[in-house]
Amino acid sequence: MPTQVGTATQSNAATASTETKGTEPAEPICCERFDPTTFDEKEIIWKDKPFVVEKARCFLYVPIDFGAAVTRAITAIEAAEAKPLGREFVTLSDMCSPWSTTIYVATKKHNIPRAEVTSLSGRYLTKVFEGPYSKCGQFVKHMETYLEEKEFGKAKKLLLYYTTCPGCAKKYGKCSTVIFAKME
After folding, report:
1. What is the dihedral of CA 73, 79, 85, 87, to 10 degrees?
2. CB burial class (10 A; 0-12, 13-18, 19+) of residue 83?
3. In degrees, to the nearest 5, what angle opens at C-alpha 44 toward C-alphas 145 and 36?
4. What does the pLDDT look like over 132-167, one tens digit per residue?
5. Cα–Cα nearest to 107, from 97, 98, 117, 99
6. How far apart are CA 107 and CA 97, in angstroms?
7. What is the largest CA-CA distance in the chain?
8. Domain boundaries in the chain?
9. DSSP label at 22?
10. What's the pTM?
11. What is the CATH number of domain 17-182?
């Protein structure tokens, strides 16, 4: 049985840090390095966890303006001094149609000026997948198989958490996606 970890995590923050590689100059890093052990095969229970909601356009499930939507949400959250720290900061995506996605960016407050805020509640099972965004369809199928094999049943909803932006994924040399399966 997965262990409970409370709330989900990680940063797609707009605040930059630097990382050095040997004698090379430091490069800006906007996303924290992802630790897959925090989410791989875990159970997360949320009760009224607040998220700023944004929408992004897609073309056949490929987001077109995802970065701009996340930046809008983070800007509003930071202006309200409501950005969760470290593990508590996650951005989830609900690929609701081939033409749009709903984006949920975690916040500490239920009231953020000039932003739509919703609450997520329920029991979520998570699994980490490594590979490029183009493999997300395969990741979803693997998640569905994982849930069946573990006899958890069918998920009510799947949310995807891209742990780093494309630039930081390239700098780190890997790309991780966490699937949150809402079970109850």
Report:
1. 0
2. buried
3. 70
4. 888 999 999 999 999 999 999 999 999 999 998 888
5. 117
6. 25
7. 51
8. 17-182
9. T
10. 0.82
11. 3.20.80.10
